[in-house]
Design a protein that fits this description.
The chain is an all-alpha fold. 90% of the residues lie in helices and 0% in strands. The protein is rod-shaped, with a radius of gyration of 48 Å. Belongs to the Smac/DIABLO protein family.
Length: 264
């Protein structure tokens, strides 16, 4: 009843504010919608008062509670229905395709990372070999022209570069094994995507495999060329050392012969 009185008071104040002059009929017509809303509010509250203040009875209270529970259930159902429908629409085939897509993306990332690592390792190995070749040729060109200290220093540099090239080669072998594992994994993922309906993902992954293999093959050629030049340098070293040793022998023989002639 207190709510009815307050609402009635609001309506009366609103009406009084608009009807300060009872002869002002035009104002009443203009604000008729406001009075209608006030009257509707009073009717709603009055009906609520009638329901709440009927004769007490356990059955009425239970019916009111049941109606509220049914309303709440209906309210929940309005918001729960779309989500339930969305979950039910995900079939096993759809989930498998999504899982296959995740596998192809992950394996493609694995392939790209191992490919870059292997290419860098092969490139660094080729650089190390070329540095060793440069030092080796410098040493061969300076045979007999360097002091003992200078020759020892150059030999130490060659040994350091030889060790670095060996470490780089071991790194290439290790990454080569990892890269091959990534390639095999991508092949399996592409096959799984194809059988699960993800033909586009399968084609993309197979293309990535071909591109990776092409880049790795180019890096392998660079390292193979470095190995070839190193082998040629070793052959040149053997020949140059043999020539140098022969020259030393002839020089020693010449000195001995001159000494013999002087004794005569």
């Amino acid at each position: 009843m207190q709510a009815v009185r307050q609402c009635s008071l609001c309506a009366s104040r609103a009406a009084g504010g608009f009807l300060r002059n009872q002869s002002d009929i035009s104002v009443l017509q203009t604000n008729k919608s406001v009075l209608k809303r006030g009257a509707a509010c009073i009717r709603v509250l009055s009906s609520s008062e009638n329901v709440l203040f009927r004769k007490p009875g356990v059955q009425k209270v239970e019916e009111s509670t049941d109606s509220v529970d049914m309303s709440m259930e209906s309210f929940r159902g309005i918001f729960a229905a779309p989500f339930t429908q969305q979950v039910e629409s995900l079939s096993h085939e759809s989930l498998i395709r999504r899982a296959a897509s995740v596998v192809t993306d992950s394996s493609s990332t694995f392939l790209s990372q191992t490919t870059l690592a292997l290419i860098d390792a092969l490139t660094d190995y080729a650089k190390a070999v070329h540095k060793r070749i440069i030092l080796q040729k410098r040493y061969l060109a300076s045979l007999g022209k360097l002091t003992t200290a200078e020759e020892e220093s150059l030999q130490r540099l060659i040994s350091v570069q030889r060790a670095e090239a060996s470490d780089r080669l071991n790194e290439c072998k290790r990454l080569e094994s990892t890269w091959m594992s990534s390639v095999n994994l991508c092949k399996l993922a592409a096959e799984a995507a194809s059988t699960s309906g993800g033909e586009e993902a399968s084609i993309t992954l197979r293309t990535n495999i071909q591109v990776a293999q092409s880049h790795v093959e180019e890096a392998r050629k660079i390292s193979a060329d470095a190995d070839k030049k190193l082998a040629e340098t070793k052959v040149e070293e053997i020949q140059r050392m043999a020539e140098y040793a022969a020259s030393l022998e002839s020089s020693d023989e010449h000195e001995i012969h001159e000494a013999y002639l002087r004794e005569d």
